[in-house]
């Protein structure tokens, strides 16, 4: 599969700023090559801090936001506008402050309207949205994501794929998740095949509580035990960590970007 690289920054703030700069560059490069770009967003503290850092960076105006397709890797299945929804947090941090084309922003459904109480139906709808965004490739189930962002939980979860849960064995691109160990229990998530279809997967990880999971994912654990171990892009897999999250990595893997 892809190259796996590890970059360590000295704290969460620097990590968020550096990952934001990297994302801006990736989007600009994709647009230079093809006129448009696509990104899959993550929820979580560092993922949201990274989006806020994109917003603060003057360089974000180098991106043509009207030509960025925005997707989500997972969502907490809650009412529209709930402060705990990944969509709400991404809109507050960045999307409400840049000129995105609303037609190119693809949030996962909320627990509302036709989908109220029916996360399975919501996941099927999202899978259909993904398939509809693959013009010219009738066989593809998901569009060609340029970069897919993931946070990592202390248990090694990515998106809403938690250790040992049935969603880890799914072939469909998007599924409902019930009984998640982290609240809320009902969620929607891309699956590993969808994640692995991205050109680049970036795992953005901060905090000492994530150190054991980062170590295991980078030391040969399997994705059933540590879902992050299965999060790999077609061309590149980048682990972007702070010192605390990198503190248990085996020697030789902890490539520090800053002293
Ligand atoms: O609930 C979630 O948690 C993970 C990790 O979040 P963090 O705050 O521990 O960084 C996140 O990646 C996922 O998108 C989110 O739904």
UniProtKB/TrEMBL annotation:
Main enzyme class: hydrolase
Glucosamine/galactosamine-6-phosphate isomerase domain residues: 11-239
Domain of life according to the entry: Bacteria
EC number annotated for this UniProt entry: 3.1.1.31
Gene Ontology terms: biological process: carbohydrate metabolic process; pentose-phosphate shunt
Family the entry assigns: Belongs to the glucosamine/galactosamine-6-phosphate isomerase family. 6-phosphogluconolactonase subfamily.
Name this polypeptide is given: 6-phosphogluconolactonase
Organism: Phytoactinopolyspora halotolerans
Protein encoded by which gene: pgl
